[in-house]
Amino acid sequence: MALFDLPLEELHRYRSSSAEPADFDTFWTKTLKEARAHDLSARFDRVETPLTSVEVHDVTFAGFGGHPVKGWLVLPAGTSEPVPLVVEFLSYGGGRGLPHTHLLWASAGFAHFVMDTRGQGSGWAHGSTADPVGSAPAHPGFLTRGIGDPHEFYYRRVFTDAVRAVEAARTHPLTDAARTAAVGASQGGGIALAVGGLMPDLAAVAPDVPFLCDFPRATTLTDRDPYREVGNYLRTHRGRSEQAARTLAYFDGVHFAARGRTPALFSAALEDQTCPPSTVFAAFNAYAHEEKHIEVYDFNDHEGGGPFQEAAQLAWLPGVLTR
């Protein structure tokens, strides 16, 4: 696929047309207050594995509605003092999978918490967390579940789970709460952006080719899923475009980015039709903290930088977390 979005020089100037709801902060303050009314109930159960360089814990904590959410905590073997914490959120359709697939950050000396995504985990990796909340009719996938009302929207539950995941990970005695980073690719990048906007005390965020950004452009520019789920829903539910746009605005990474209070490392791929580069730059350009950088991969699709971006994160994050 050749370049299809704006030229790079225009991407650096691009601003989203997404309208921020007047009660955006009130909505999220109330949402998190309701979640925190439930005891966090974080439990870390040591798992015996053949892995010798890491220590693995099977984690359960209370997310949105007090619902149980699973995760993995992977620590460098022999850790006796608190180490910097990397909390990772997963890309669309996948779950936490098996512990041996999460060795990168612990191998670099970090505590690595991987949050399972409720109701997903049946695509590229299996998951262990159900979503006990139903929704009105929705297009197959997750992006239109509850789209008629922001209070019922699927990602209200996921973003709340993500904040609680950071809170849960920080309760472990071997994680350093003051040196916490949120990372993720695609959907995980969008979730990391949301967490960065909702938790002002993070030390860093690293959204890699993030999903869930600049919905007005994304849902009309690309015909790839997951964004295409919205168009497919509206094709059937004629006349509901305004309501859908209103709901999505509460979950747009552009508005969370505007509340970013910590250094950030983004990435974008210029041939990415799943998360078009203009939607990523919309969040990057809106990001409020002055210390921000974006890696651009000229001839890549949604795979983005892949291991090259991981290398960039590994080079960048230690310096940010050791200040």
**Average pLDDT for all residues:** 96
Strand content: 15-25%
Helix fraction bin: 25-40%
Task: Using the alpha-carbon principal axes, give the shape.
Answer: globular
Count of individual beta strands = 9
Number of helices: 11
**What is the string of helix and strand elements?**
HHEEEEHEHEHEHHHHEHEH
Outline the structure in words.
This protein has 323 residues and is an alpha/beta fold. It is 33% helix and 20% strand. β2 (54-62) and β3 (68-76) form a beta hairpin. α2 (24-36) packs across α4. It is globular and about 55 Å long. The mean pLDDT is 96.
In short, what is this structure?
This protein is α/β, with parallel strands linked by helices and 323 residues long.
Descriptive key words:
single chain; 323 residues; nine-stranded mixed beta sheet; 11 helices; 9 strands
SSE order and pairing:
Layout: H1 8-11, H2 24-36, E1 43-47, E2 54-62, E3 68-76, E4 83-89, H3 104-107, E5 111-115, H4 154-170, E6 175-185, H5 187-198, E7 204-208, H6 215-221, H7 228-236, H8 241-249, H9 253-257, E8 264-269, H10 277-286, E9 292-297, H11 307-321
Parallel strand pairs: 4-5, 4-6, 6-7, 7-8, 8-9
Antiparallel strand pairs: 1-2, 2-3, 3-5
